[in-house]
């Protein structure tokens, strides 16, 4: 059995998880920015079963992962609720103030196209690459840069 739950391994195999971690490391090699990918089986239901808001959940996970604590507030989270086929891309205030909602929507749309083609690994890696290029344009890597957040895909 792999180190990820069965539902996550039906979406991505262990080789996919490793490839995504490498893609994050590669993207971050050109920027001081931070990228995380987080998978959940489904967005937790609110009280009384109200439909959950995927963007609000992604923001909650962003904070739970400590992504708001980066030195320049330039972390970006790719959040996927796998079984519900929902996703969100959230950038912290530093990078969001420079690129705005339109950029995150473009990354999301790029992912949706590849996910519909049943290519989740490709969808995530392309999104990481696009985010990495954007972060590098606004936050180039500095000689004293250190990796502030894990590059591993987190799962809950």
Residue fraction in strands? 5-15%
How far apart the termini lie comes to 17 Å
CATH class equals Alpha Beta
Low-confidence stretches: none
- Class derived from helix and strand content: alpha/beta
Mean pLDDT: 93
The CATH architecture would be Roll
How many helical stretches? 5
Total beta strands: 4
Sheet with most strands: strand arrangement: 3-2-1-4
Description:
The chain is α/β, with parallel strands linked by helices and 156 residues long. The chain has a single domain (6-140, 149-155), classed as Diaminopimelate Epimerase, Chain A, domain 1 (Roll), CATH 3.10.310. The chain is 48% helix and 14% strand. The chain contains 5 helices and 4 strands. The protein has helices spanning 6-11, 14-28, 54-64, 93-116, 120-138; strands at 34-40, 75-81, 86-91, 154-155. It has a 4-stranded mixed β-sheet, with helices on both faces. β2 and β3 form a beta hairpin. α2 runs parallel beside α5 (120-138) and α4 packs antiparallel against α5 (120-138).
Key words describing this protein structure:
single chain; 156 residues; alpha/beta; Diaminopimelate Epimerase, Chain A, domain 1; four-stranded mixed β-sheet; 5 helices; 48% helix; 14% strand; globular
What's this entry about, in short?
The protein is of the alpha/beta class and 156 residues long.
How are the SSEs ordered, and which strands pair?
Blueprint: H1 6-11, H2 14-28, E1 34-40, H3 54-64, E2 75-81, E3 86-91, H4 93-116, H5 120-138, E4 154-155
Parallel strand pairs: 1-2, 1-4
Antiparallel strand pairs: 2-3
Helix pairs in contact: 2-5, 4-5
